[in-house]
Specification:
Blueprint lengths: L5 H10 L3 E4 L8 H11 L4 E4 L9 E3 L5 H8 L4 H12 L7 H15 L4 E3 L7 E3 L21 E2 L2 E6 L6 E4 L3 E2 L5 E3 L7 H12 L3 E7 L3 H6 L10 H9 L4 E4 L6 E3 L4 E15 L2 E2 L5 E2 L2 E13 L5 E2 L9 H20 L3 E5 L10 E5 L6 H10 L9 E6 L7 H11 L2 H4 E7 L12 E8 L21 H7 L9
Parallel strand pairs: 1-2, 3-18, 4-12, 20-21, 21-23
Antiparallel strand pairs: 2-3, 5-17, 6-9, 7-8, 7-11, 10-17, 11-14, 12-13, 14-17, 15-16, 19-20, 22-23
């Protein structure tokens, strides 16, 4: 099922016993973070803080903090069901004959239904504040003690390419500077940063709109590492099984989800930078302060009674880890479309998305594992992968114990380790330079004669099936 808006999702969470309402007064400065951090690490429910000091708006946090809630947000029984739909989409072929075209008309109509739909007005504009507003009225969190200030952490940031006119929706943290300005944490590799660089060349200001609190599928889509210039709202329509309704902003030439809770409209002036950070980031360490563009808010629109949707990041496991797990499973068919030899991938929480990717492959020729490594390093945001470990398809890479056992037994460290230089994540504090550093690939597959291994490769120790069957059903009585 598709949710019309965030509040409908909140109702679904409550019906499922996955929401706890907190009615006592809490502070958005550190206190909510400490509560939420303990709850998410304990596998606890989503939290709706109904009495937040300094604001009239309730705060929703930890809405995606378990696999069950991620599936509830996506309206699917499990992530494999979503991945299967993605696989079906990838296998779609354009009809060749007239008969094929006629048979495919219903399917083509389904595909067309994914595209965003523009509506004349929406709940996000029930209240329009073009003056007299202050961002301090929002219950924006200061998450960690050494943060540079209060940060909007789940914003859907909309901008348009000044040349092509194509829309981008990304999620970039925004530090509150004052009543009407924020930072815009456009890392150099992101789509919003590309729009900003284009404006920087000709001096044009870049119009920006920020939606806070949308249909959960729309919020999720903003986090996806989709191919460049692929409209996130189209993919959101695909995931939710129907179009995302969009409405024109009041003061900028952009559209935003019509059912969003809060919308900030404004612009970024090329060349205007301001110190942003530090920020306690998803790596579990503070990202350093640096200069980033300034977002000027010139209008705030919202529902009459909006909910402020936010999250915290820090040392895993955190809410964003479960969103990352969903991305891993949903985009696996996309990766396998380009690399059919890949059986599975796994991004352990401890690797915080970009520090470690484990890959299982059907090895077909000497050097195959290294081909896969370099292919992944050339694949969109996977280029940030600091370490790639490749194993055979016989290894269950979702089991880290089995993976470590197989990999550590299979490698000759000097022979099987490869180092390359290239772009790294902006948040990688260990790299030799900002955005540039080294990466490591480890080939932990069985070695072949064609790779210089002349000895026999041993088989793992296993009991015979006959003896296993003999002992099944009676072994427990020997120790209980």
């Amino acid at each position: 099922m598709a949710y019309r808006d965030l509040q409908e999702f909140i109702a679904a969470l409550e019906r499922a016993g996955q929401l706890r309402r907190v009615r006592e007064s809490v502070s958005p400065l550190l206190e909510i973070t400490e509560i939420a951090d303990r709850v998410v690490k304990a596998g606890g429910p989503a939290l709706l803080f109904e009495s937040v000091q300094g604001s009239e708006f309730p705060v929703l946090i930890n809405a995606f903090g378990t696999l069950e809630r991620v599936c509830l947000a996506l309206g699917a029984p499990d992530l494999d069901a979503v991945a299967a739909r993605v696989q079906e989409l990838l296998e779609f072929k354009s009809p060749a004959s007239l008969a094929d075209k006629i048979r495919m008309l219903p399917k083509l109509a389904d595909l067309a239904s994914f595209f965003p739909k523009t509506v004349r007005n929406g709940p996000c504009q029930e209240m329009v504040l073009a003056e007299g507003f202050s961002l301090a009225d929002l219950p924006v969190l200061q998450c960690w003690p050494d943060d540079g200030g209060r940060f909007i952490t789940l914003p859907l940031v909309f901008s348009r390419d000044p040349v092509t006119g194509k829309r981008n929706c990304g999620m970039y943290r925004m530090q509150l500077h004052d009543a009407t300005t924020t930072g815009m944490h456009w890392q150099i590799h992101k789509g919003g940063a590309q729009h900003y660089r284009t404006c920087l060349r000709d001096g044009r200001r870049l119009e920006v709109a920020v939606a806070i609190g949308a249909d959960p599928v729309v919020t999720f889509a903003a986090t996806l590492p989709l191919p460049e210039d692929f409209d996130e709202m189209i993919f959101a329509g695909f995931l939710r099984g129907g179009p995302v309704e969009m409405v024109h902003c009041r003061t900028v030439d952009l559209e935003v989800p019509a059912t969003a809770e809060i919308v900030l409209e404004g612009y970024v002036q090329p060349g205007e930078l301001r110190r942003e950070g530090p920020f306690g980031d998803h790596t579990g360490f503070y990202s350093l302060a640096d200069d980033y563009p300034v977002f000027h808010v010139q209008c705030v629109t919202r529902k009459r009674q909006p909910v402020y949707h936010t999250t915290i990041v820090g040392r895993p496991p955190m809410e964003d880890c479960w969103m990352g797990k969903a991305i891993e499973r949903i985009l696996l068919p996309v990766i396998r479309k380009q690399f059919p030899e890949i059986v599975d991938i796994h991004l352990p929480f401890e690797g915080v998305f970009h520090n470690l990717i484990i890959v299982a492959i059907r090895k077909a020729y000497p050097g195959h594992a290294r081909k896969v490594m370099h292919g992944i390093w050339g694949l969109g945001q996977a280029m940030f992968s600091k370490c790639i470990l490749v194993v055979d398809d016989t290894v269950n890479i979702q089991d880290l114990s089995e993976t470590a056992w197989a990999a550590l037994n299979h490698i000759d460290p000097q022979r099987d380790t490869e180092f390359v230089l290239g772009p790294v994540d902006s948040l990688d504090h260990a790299s030799r330079l900002p955005d540039f550093g080294s990466k490591m690939g480890v080939d932990a597959t069985r070695k072949w004669p064609g790779e210089g291994f002349a000895r026999a490769w041993p088989e793992p120790v296993r009991m015979s099936p006959e003896i296993r069957a003999l002992v099944d059903g009676k072994w427990e009585r020997y120790w209980r």
